[in-house]
Amino acid sequence: MTTGSVVAFDQVTKTYGDVRAVDGLTLALHPGETVALLGPNGAGKSTTLDLLLGLKHADSGTVRLFGGSPREAIVAGRVGAMLQSGGLMDEVTVGELVKLACDLHPKPFRVTDVLARAGVSQIADRKVNKLSGGQEQRVRFALATAGDTDLIVLDEPTTGMDVTTRHAFWATMREQADQGRTVLFATHYLEEADAIADRVLVLHRGRLLADGTAAEIKAKAGARRVSFDLEGPIDEAPLRALPFLTSVDISGHTIRIQSTDADATVHALYGLGVFPRNLEVAGLGLEQAFVAITAAEESKSK
Ligand SMILES: Nc1ncnc2c1ncn2[C@@H]1O[C@H](COP(=O)(O)OP(=O)(O)OP(=O)(O)O)[C@@H](O)[C@H]1O
């Protein structure tokens, strides 16, 4: 395995007309890391992955893979990728396509093993243009794992997969990471990032807003959730005026709030002379932390 960085972005910028898709991105990924790339629509995730794979070129800055160019790493068979776009070839079977990928790979695995790992052995004789969305994703996964790579790049890999397939997919991905491969995946499923990744990157308008473990990202959001029920008629104005609130949701008799100082908020709540029932105070989930971090950035840029 490699020492040093697997991926190194240094001050990378990529613009399309006046859109800065990637804006001065500096980033290093290390061997064996499983890294989730999060960001709202248009944050620059796909562009980042395309730059990493040498499918697009930076306007400025450098992208290095294993100390060389993306192209060198790909030619050497060190990178497997599963992208969102790009049709699979028509009129070939799953088995033929996977065999082709293995034949072309400098360090191929056995075709039967690749098919089995991706869970497509049973549909090996099926034409690739006759597959369901989830089956197509599995075939893309087979193509990305046709050989012994050091880095696997996945752009929204589980889109279209049912729950069982998704679980099987991540179990396989974990095996890949346990064998020392670096796995980088872009996703909109934050629970996946929370469960799978040992490092989470949050992109927003092409810039890195947060970089850390899921726990660190949650802590960075700095807020906690407080929920409780109130009986009788609810006077909303004093509740909305409680200190340290970042959001309030009043639904029937249930109040859900987020606060940057839950202790002070709850103290003030009792000060209103109301009697909250079923009071719960909890940390933010990764999804809520993500929303809080990106919303804070949005309001800064307004
Ligand atoms: N080929 C292109 N031409 C012009 N603009 C582009 C092109 N590709 C991407 N963009 C723009 O660059 C920005 C980043 O797009 P990108 O696809 O990298 O984001 P993303 O984070 O992958 O989004 P999503 O979650 O919606 O897939 C967006 O504003 C997008 O409209």
From TrEMBL:
One of its GO terms (biological process) is response to antibiotic. Pfam families: ABC_tran. Gene3D superfamilies: P-loop containing nucleotide triphosphate hydrolases. Residues 7-230 form the ABC transporter domain. Its main location: membrane. The keyword Glycoprotein does not apply. Keywords: Antibiotic resistance, ATP-binding, Nucleotide-binding, Transport. One of its GO terms (molecular function) is ATP binding. It comes from the Bacteria. It is found in: Cell membrane. CDD domains: ABC_DR_subfamily_A. The keyword Transport applies. This is ABC transporter ATP-binding protein. It comes from Streptomyces avermitilis. The lineage of its organism: Bacteria, Bacillati, Actinomycetota, Actinomycetes, Kitasatosporales.
